[in-house]
Amino acid sequence: MKIKVKKLNKDAKLPTHGHPGDAGMDFYAIEDVFFPASGQAQVHTGVAIEIPEGYVGLIWDKSSVSFGHGLKIMGGVIDSSYRGEIIMSLRNLSDKDFTLQKGHKIAQMVIQKFEHCDIVEVGELSETVRGHGREGSTGHK
């Protein structure tokens, strides 16, 4: 599969795969972004992508950014019809201020096939062993 990428900013870097066979494409910041402790900010990538119909782009944390600095992706579903800039919203879950440097990897996107579903309202749902059980329903906590 080929993913078309358009640079919207001269300083933008195209997404990359860190290693052959990696599922996620790494995206890069086009500017320094300050994250106050417990604060949230948007990070611009300067690129737009064309995801094929029948697929979705799922944005996930980069371990170096989340483990090392406490930054967590907020949101992360990019539909195939979207053609605007990929902008990542991250929250600093740590108690320390952090500045993400221009050119730093910020998040990764996995392109995944999905099934579109028709939503049908019904009066009852089928029964299962689990039923209405939530957290701890298997007896393990």
Assembly level: single chain
**Distance linking N and C termini:** 41 Å
Q: Please indicate the count of domains.
A: 1
Relevant CATH superfamily = Deoxyuridine triphosphatase (dUTPase)
- The radius of gyration over CA amounts to 19 Å
**Helix percentage range:** under 10%
H/I helix tally: 1
Indicate the low-confidence ranges by residue numbers.
none
- State mean pLDDT (0 to 100 scale): 93
GO molecular function: dUTP diphosphatase activity; magnesium ion binding
Protein name: dUTP diphosphatase
Domain dUTPase-like: 11-139
Keywords: Hydrolase, Nucleotide metabolism
Can you offer a commentary on this structure?
The protein is about 5% helix and about 40% strand. It is mostly beta strands. The chain has one domain: Deoxyuridine triphosphatase (dUTPase) (Deoxyuridine 5'-Triphosphate Nucleotidohydrolase, Chain A), CATH 2.70.40.10. The longest helix is centred in the middle third of the chain and has 7 residues, at about 65-70.
State the main characteristics.
141 residues; mainly beta; 10 strands; Deoxyuridine 5'-Triphosphate Nucleotidohydrolase, Chain A; single chain
Q: SSE layout and pairings?
A:
Blueprint: E1 4-7, E2 25-28, E3 33-35, E4 40-50, E5 55-61, H1 63-69, E6 71-73, E7 77-79, E8 85-92, E9 98-100, E10 105-113
Antiparallel strand pairs: 1-4, 2-10, 3-9, 4-8, 5-7, 5-10, 6-8
Compact description:
With 141 residues, the chain is mainly beta. It has one helix at residues 63-69; strands spanning 4-7, 25-28, 33-35, 40-50, 55-61, 71-73, 77-79, 85-92, 98-100, 105-113. The model has no long low-confidence stretch (mean pLDDT 93).
